[in-house]
Each structure stands twice: as C-alpha cells, then as structure tokens.
C-alpha cells in the first residue's frame, strides 16, 4: 500500500472549481482535495445539489476523484458541507481546530460535525495547528500537538474521526516529524504536504523549498503503512505565478510528488 499524490483545487483559487479540476486533470493530477473557498462558492449557487452532481459527473468523465474537502473556515454549516461532500464522493472532510478555544469547546464543535459525518458515512480529519501567532510571544493554542488531536479522536468516534498532519504547521511548532507521525499511527488519515523556510511562520511552499526533513516524513509514513492522500497544500510558491505560467510549476509539482512516493 502506498499513498497517492493529490492537490488542493485552490491552486487555481481565481477559477471556478470545475475549471480548476479540468486544468489539473489535463496535467495528470488524479486526486483532489476540494478547496474551502470553492465549497463556499458552490454552496451559494442556486440549486447547489445539481451543481455538485454535475461536478461529480465531470470528475467521472475525466477519471479523477475528489477524495477530501477542506474545511470549516468559510462558514458553510456542517449539515450542508457534509451533504455536498457526499455528492462529490469525498471520503474525508478536513477541519481546523479552533485554536483560540478550550479543548472542551473544540470537542463540542467537532461533535456538531460528527453527527452529520456518521449519518452520511464520511470521515473527518482534524488538522494540527501551531502556536506561532504573529505578535504574541510564548502563546499556547489548542490543537498543535499529536496528543491534543488524539484526545479529540478518542472522545468522538475513532472509527470515523482521525488526524490530518500538516507538515509545515508541525515544522513551525518545532515538532519532530518522525516521532509525531509515529505517535499518530493508524489515526493519521490525511496529510497536508507543504514546506517552510522559517521556524516562526508557515509558508506553504513545495517540498524541498524549505527546511522540512522529508526523509524523516516519508520514513514515518511508510512505517505506519499510511495509505491516504499525499495532498499538496501549496501557497505562495504556486499562487504567485501568473495564471498562464502556473501550469509549469504544477506539472513539476506532480512529477516531484510522484518521485518522492516512488523513489524515497
Ligand atoms: Mn493545512
């Protein structure tokens, strides 16, 4: 079992989701994580269910799949988000913990998603965050360590709820990637693949553009027999390219992730 190269549809944040997926599929990308802003845009359309069904059909025609959807930051309510995710064929919905809230409040919010996820048979992945909020020294937030995330998993439904490990968040948090991934073990159900050159801020670069120890990451993923998506969550290193040039980097990104999976 190996993991699959995937990419966030938000690498074309200025395009409609349908156009983003067509363009990425044309380069050879087959697995997608649906971008939060794309979800919010489609949720606002008239008769969203029809549009989501049409997008699912488009994916089937292109022989690609939207296997994950991110996230809870655009205000689409859980019951609608999960319903749309199901139409798209999504297996995992990725949620950020609320870093400013207590662990009890986070559990309450997560439970509001879990009831719908159980009803629709869709998994949830809670993502690791980090403490480095600009301007606030020595701050501790909730949801930055494996133990905090595993507590949420155990308190809800470990059959359905797991963890999304964001590599550049973990780097900013100064965690040992190998040990953290090993600690998560079978509860790791999704990844956000990105890099950063700084210890004080997340940059969402492509792998090897920053300081992440990718050898340690891949070794740990193999040892826990991770079988989920290796999902690129690229930011400025892709989005800064003007639209007519962006395909160049996204083709490179696909070759890079495939090579990491096959040769490392
Ligand atoms: Mn992330």
Strand segment count: 8
**CATH first level: which class?**
Alpha Beta
**Which hetero compounds are present in the coordinates?**
manganese (II) ion
Strand fraction band? 15-25%
How many structurally independent domains?
1
Average pLDDT score: 95
Name the CATH architecture: Alpha-Beta Barrel
Structural class: alpha/beta
Task: Catalogue the unreliable spans.
Answer: none
Indicate the overall shape: globular
Tally of helical segments: 11
> Which fold does the CATH topology refer to?
TIM Barrel
Distance between the termini: 15 Å
Order of helical and strand elements: EHEHHEHEHEHEHHEHEHH
List keywords for this structure.
264 residues; 11 helices; binds manganese (II) ion
Layout of helices and strands:
Blueprint: E1 4-8, H1 17-27, E2 31-34, H2 36-43, H3 48-62, E3 65-70, H4 78-88, E4 92-95, H5 103-120, E5 123-127, H6 146-155, E6 161-166, H7 167-172, H8 177-184, E7 188-193, H9 214-223, E8 229-232, H10 236-239, H11 243-263
Parallel strand pairs: 1-2, 1-8, 2-3, 3-4, 4-5, 5-6, 6-7, 7-8
Manganese (II) ion binds next to loops.
